[in-house]
């Protein structure tokens, strides 16, 4: 029986190749995702391992937070500790070496005055320890920094931006930009750089001054002497420490960091994996369809097998073995391509602004296992229903004529089943949105798609008839024939269309969500701020920016905005701070109870109406909150404000904020200009010249840039969904090829009675466009519904406006028609080239 | 065959609807070469029903395919009217089939997605030509399918399907209709019905028809029977009867 299966496989090479392609692409995506994820993990873990290789203990202040963010960006969550601790620890017996470190924002400016690196924590300034016993940094050229004019730069940045030892370089720092002389180049361990992070190393006292930590360190690292009793030493150090300062082993710090990095990275991997699974799901439809059609076409062959004595079990197995073999071959190819895909994904992510280190790829042992299991699994599962259909073929079918139009009636059972699954899916989506639970939403959406695929056959005939009508009148008889062909087997048409339906449903739900997001963002800018200009920079910027812009002629009010995290009722939330002085000139805070500015002045907390309603809060209540650096505090609620997505749910005055956050950087400065002031943009341009990472926008411009940033994020999702659509198109090509093959005689007849090649092509193309549009219309309808549901569930998260982007959705339909036309290219050419006589003679 | 019928034929330059001149068709090459047609020359007269008979493998289908432009002969010439088929490219051949030739096959004559009426007007629709409604009504009336026009092929009997195919072939008044075993899949009464209609089309409308068959009773409806054997013309009978055809076949077979 296996031999028969294998011979069958060989005979249907082309069809198989097309089927396999759907799986190849899906597995490629899965493999690429796994490889990329492993590579990133390995890279960061190597970095962390290098950094803490020699550290026996680290002394640091305690943090009230145990979050990933706190582990990754220590300085924002821990207070500096006094230098005197280092001096005391140094005297302890069993201590070999001690180094106190300070770090913070330090962003190099390129020679053309462009900022280098992404800002925030990706542009690291630190105190450079020339002693290599603890430091992970290695001096590879020049000398260590010794004066307050010296800096060492990482070799990668120096190479990329053509800096050499002895050059002057401008660096943006927390307080103000400053020029330094490059005295040396460093590497991180043996790596050229630290996973894409730029490094600026200063001598210890300069770093303390630059990062506003005179007399303090962020952390103190300790190297124990060889043979020292580490447990006793840790206890001895602990005895020296004041309240709020702790000593942990280097291993513990490195473990915490690793866990935090893994967790952060898993978000990227999970996101990619979701899209990979969507592609595979769509691929499954293609396989299901192909096997359904081939089983139909092979009715006679399978029945003949039954006549000569094959058992039902053997027929069943032969179809499944065929599927499994297809799956194995496709998965192996996909596995190979997946490695390339990992490189492609990395390039793609960085094109969309996600900076990832470019280290050699990691091919973990579980990657091929998972990829092949998933590829083969999807193929076999998709072939089960067609295989069961094959089993039901009676032996007598070998003697009968077969006719593709003998499609079985659509049973009531399907209607009931589809309806039930659809209802369950919708309930799951709605429930998932309210919980909120992404998994539940995903399962719900999946159920909706399966139900739609089950129910579409009922709609397929009238719907493709309606879609095809204008085509038929446009393209005459060939168009009419294409329309009839799309209606002749609703089951096949809808299975083909279903794959595209899923892809377009996802695209259009993202489109609706994106449009709602950007409309909301624009609306929120308008309702949130009064300022005429907004100064922003990625990941915060030097404090001197505020002073520089407030001095400008024509600027009447400035307000520096800070943001940080605090824990409110157990949940870590965003806290925004602004100056209460002339608040209404720059920020719109509409208080529904209490007075916003006055409350901020008094150091009270402002919460928005959503939070107030959800947590039963009112003005005058005292609530406990936790700050990472200062711990538990009680705050009085001073005002309830209308939701303002730009500032978030919690607002305080800058006085309170600065008391709880050590040395924070402003994230934005809002400007109000005097009435009739002119030339402000030019003045701003000049004032901000030294701060290449800082830009400004008018309020209208800021609205536009908010919209743009939403668009950019959506762009990445569209690109990732594009693969699912490509796979759906392969499904259409596949079905058309099978149909052309099946209708050889019919096409021969049409040619014999005078259909030209061009007309044959038009006929096939019309059918393809109709099938594509069928999938697109249903997909866009479902997707719009999903998108609206998704957007309305985000009302509390700032999506205040629901916007259905009609032009984009219509554009999607148009695009589908074009894609359908493209998909028909090959099958249409093949049909047109059929030899008339051969086609007629085909049995 | 009355003189009156012949009068109805257009005063053509020649009285032949199609001609084959030294038509040869070989399949394969070298020792394995099979000669399906060996220098066959025949002329098919206008307004006549010509039957081509012969045992399996005698080359009768190949002859028809070559003369209709469906197959390309190895050598020799095939002509429809004065048009040499070998000179035509695919586009011109398609046009020739659409405008000047009609086909009736043994089976699978109709497009399953089209109704009977749409199948009949298919060639005209493909050409974008207007259909002669009177002629259409006359045809479907004579064929007894007027009440079946909105049906799809699978709702028609085999005989009805073949009559629809005949109507399609006749609608464009082609110079020549090729009928390849048109009664091959029909029972005897449906065959008789179809054949009398074909006969009538020749007699009343001066249609030229060539019919490949191996049924002597079908051949008896023809004006002339051409016998093929081993790829060559082996005999010919004018005004045949079933008996005379069987006689001739016996002679050739023996």
What structural category arises from helix and sheet content of chain B?
alpha/beta
Total count of domains of chain A: 3
Name the shape of chain A in a single word: elongated
Distance between the termini of chain B: 31 Å
| Proportion of residues in β-strands of chain A | 15-25%
How would you characterize the largest beta sheet of chain B?
6 strands, mixed
Q: How many strand units of chain B?
A: 10
What separation lies between the terminal Cα atoms of chain A? 26 Å
Q: What is the element layout, followed by pairings?
A:
The complex is a heterodimer of chains A (843) and B (254).
Chain A: H1 2-11, H2 13-51, E1 57-61, H3 68-72, H4 74-77, E2 81-82, H5 84-90, E3 95-101, E4 103-105, E5 107-108, E6 123-127, E7 137-142, E8 150-154, H6 155-160, E9 168-172, E10 178-188, E11 198-202, H7 204-210, E12 216-217, E13 219-224, H8 230-240, E14 245-249, H9 250-297, H10 299-307, H11 312-351, H12 366-391, H13 412-434, H14 438-488, H15 490-528, E15 533-537, H16 544-550, E16 555-568, E17 571-578, E18 591-594, H17 596-601, E19 605-608, H18 609-615, E20 622-627, E21 631-641, E22 650-653, H19 654-660, E23 668-673, H20 680-687, E24 694-698, H21 699-742, H22 744-752, H23 757-793, H24 806-832, H25 836-841
Parallel strand pairs in A: 6-11, 8-10, 17-22, 19-21
Antiparallel strand pairs in A: 1-13, 1-14, 2-12, 3-13, 4-6, 5-9, 7-10, 8-11, 9-10, 15-23, 15-24, 16-17, 16-20, 16-23, 18-21, 19-22, 20-21
Chain B: H1 3-8, E1 16-27, E2 34-45, E3 49-53, H2 60-67, E4 75-80, E5 83-84, H3 90-100, E6 101-104, H4 116-120, H5 122-127, H6 133-143, H7 158-171, E7 176-180, H8 188-205, E8 209-212, H9 216-219, E9 224-229, E10 232-238, H10 242-253
Parallel strand pairs in B: 3-8, 3-9, 6-7, 7-8
Antiparallel strand pairs in B: 1-2, 1-4, 4-5, 9-10
Helix pairs in contact in B: 6-7, 7-8
């Amino acid at each position: 029986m296996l031999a028969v299966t294998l011979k069958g496989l060989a005979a249907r090479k082309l069809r198989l190749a097309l089927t396999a392609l759907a799986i190849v692409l899906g597995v490629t995506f899965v493999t690429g995702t796994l490889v990329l994820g492993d590579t990133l993990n390995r890279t960061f873990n190597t970095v962390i391992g290098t950094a803490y290789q020699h550290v026996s203990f680290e002394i640091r202040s305690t943090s009230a937070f145990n979050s990933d963010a706190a582990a990754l960006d220590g300085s924002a969550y821990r207070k500096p500790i006094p230098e005197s601790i280092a001096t005391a620890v140094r005297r302890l017996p069993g201590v070999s070496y001690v180094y106190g470190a300070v770090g913070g924002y330090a962003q190099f400016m390129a020679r053309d005055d462009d900022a280098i690196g992404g800002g925030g924590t990706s542009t690291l300034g630190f105190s450079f320890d020339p002693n290599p016993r603890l430091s992970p940094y290695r001096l590879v050229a020049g000398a260590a920094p010794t004066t307050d004019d010296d800096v060492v730069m990482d070799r990668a940045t120096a190479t990329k931006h053509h800096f050499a030892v002895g050059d002057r370089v401008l660096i943006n720092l927390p307080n103000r930009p400053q020029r330094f002389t490059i005295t040396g180049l460093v590497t991180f361990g043996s790596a050229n750089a630290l996973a894409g992070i730029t490094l600026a190393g200063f001598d210890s006292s300069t770093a303390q001054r630059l990062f506003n930590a005179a007399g303090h360190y962020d952390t103190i690292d300790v190297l124990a002497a060889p043979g020292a009793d580490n447990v006793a030493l840790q206890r001895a150090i602990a005895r020296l420490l004041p309240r709020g300062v702790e000593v942990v082993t280097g291993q513990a710090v490195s473990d915490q960091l690793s866990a935090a990095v893994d967790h952060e990275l898993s978000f990227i991997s999970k996101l990619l994996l979701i899209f990979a699974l969507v592609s595979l799901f769509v691929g499954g439809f293609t396989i299901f369809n192909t096997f359904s059609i081939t089983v139909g076409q092979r009715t006679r062959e399978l029945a003949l097998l039954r006549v000569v004595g094959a058992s039902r079990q053997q027929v069943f197995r032969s179809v499944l073995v065929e599927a499994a073999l297809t799956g194995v071959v496709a998965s192996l190819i996909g596995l190979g391509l997946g490695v390339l895909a990992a490189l492609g994904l990395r390039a793609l992510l960085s094109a969309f602004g996600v900076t990832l280190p470019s280290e050699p790829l990691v091919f973990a042992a579980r990657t091929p296992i998972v990829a092949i299991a998933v590829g083969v699994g999807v193929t076999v599962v998709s072939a089960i229903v067609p295989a069961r259909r094959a089993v039901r073929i009676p032996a007598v079918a070998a003697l009968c004529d077969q006719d593709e139009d003998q499609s079985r009636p659509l049973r009531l059972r399907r209607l009931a089943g589809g309806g039930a699954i659809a209802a369950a899916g919708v309930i799951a989506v709605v429930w998932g949105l309210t919980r909120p639970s992404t998994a539940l939403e995903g399962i719900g959406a999946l159920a909706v798609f399966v139900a739609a695929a089950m129910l579409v056959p009922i709609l397929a005939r009238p719907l493709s008839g309606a879609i095809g009508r204008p085509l038929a009148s446009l393209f005459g008889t060939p168009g009419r024939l294409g329309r009839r062909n799309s209606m002749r087997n609703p089951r096949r048409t809808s299975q083909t269309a279903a794959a595209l339906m899923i892809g377009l449903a996802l695209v259009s739900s993202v489109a609706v969500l994106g449009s709602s997001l950007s409309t909301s963002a624009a609306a929120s800018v308008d309702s949130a701020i009064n300022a005429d200009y907004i100064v922003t920079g990625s990941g915060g910027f030097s404090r001197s920016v505020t002073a520089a812009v407030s001095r400008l002629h024509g600027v009447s009010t400035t307000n520096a905005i800070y943001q940080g995290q605090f824990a409110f009722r157990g949940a870590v939330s965003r806290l925004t701070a602004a100056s209460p002085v002339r608040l209404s000139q720059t920020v719109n805070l509409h208080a529904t109870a209490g007075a916003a500015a006055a409350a901020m002045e008094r150091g009270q907390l402002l919460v928005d109406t959503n939070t107030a309603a959800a947590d039963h809060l009112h003005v005058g209540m005292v609530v406990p909150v936790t700050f990472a650096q200062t711990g538990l505090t009680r705050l009085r609620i001073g005002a309830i404000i209308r939701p303002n997505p730009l500032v978030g749910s919690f607002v305080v005055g800058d006085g309170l904020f600065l008391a709880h956050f050590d040395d924070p950087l402003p994230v934005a400065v809002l400007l109000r200009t005097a009435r009739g002031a002119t030339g402000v943009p030019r003045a701003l341009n000049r004032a901000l010249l030294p701060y290449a990472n800082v830009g400004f926008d008018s309020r209208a411009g800021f609205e536009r840039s908010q919209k743009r940033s939403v668009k950019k994020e959506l762009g990445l999702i569209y690109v990732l969904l594009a693969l699912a659509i490509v796979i759906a198109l392969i499904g259409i090509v596949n079905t058309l090829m099978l149909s052309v093959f099946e209708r050889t005689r019919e096409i021969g007849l049409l040619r014999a009675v005078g259909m030209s090649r061009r007309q044959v092509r038009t006929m096939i193309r019309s059918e393809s466009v109709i099938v594509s549009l069928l999938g697109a219309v249903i997909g866009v309808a479902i997707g719009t519904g999903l998108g609206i549901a998704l957007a309305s569930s985000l009302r509390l998260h700032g999506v205040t406006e629901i916007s259905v982007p009609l032009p984009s959705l219509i554009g999607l339909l148009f695009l589908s028609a074009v894609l359908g036309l493209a998909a028909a290219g090959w099958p249409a050419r093949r049909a047109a080239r059929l030899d008339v006589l051969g086609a007629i003679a085909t049995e | 065959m009355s003189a009156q019928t012949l009068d109805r034929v257009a005063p053509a330059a020649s009285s032949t609807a199609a001609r084959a001149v030294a038509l040869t068709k070989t399949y394969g090459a070298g020792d394995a070469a099979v000669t399906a047609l060996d220098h066959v020359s025949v002329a098919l007269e206008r307004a006549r029903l010509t039957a081509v008979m012969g045992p399996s493998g005698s080359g009768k289908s190949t002859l028809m395919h070559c003369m209709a432009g469906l197959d390309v002969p190895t050598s020799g010439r095939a002509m429809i009217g004065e048009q040499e088929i070998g000179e035509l490219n695919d586009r011109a051949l398609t046009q020739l089939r659409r405008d000047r030739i009609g086909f009736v096959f043994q089976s699978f004559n109709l497009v399953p997605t089209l109704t009977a009426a749409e199948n009949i007007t298919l060639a005209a629709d493909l050409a974008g030509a207007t259909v002669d409604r009177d002629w259409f009504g006359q045809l479907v009336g004579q064929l007894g399918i007027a009440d079946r026009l909105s049906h799809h092929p699978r709702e028609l009997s085999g005989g009805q399907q073949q009559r629809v195919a005949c109507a399609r072939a006749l609608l464009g008044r082609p110079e020549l209709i090729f009928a390849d075993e048109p009664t091959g899949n029909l029972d005897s009464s449906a065959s008789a019905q179809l054949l009398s209609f074909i006969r009538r089309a020749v007699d009343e409308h001066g249609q030229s028809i060539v019919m490949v068959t191996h049924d002597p009773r079908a051949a008896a409806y023809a004006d002339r029977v051409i016998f093929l054997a081993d790829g060559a013309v082996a005999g010919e009978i004018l005004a045949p009867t079933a008996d005379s055809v069987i006689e001739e076949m016996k002679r050739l077979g023996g």
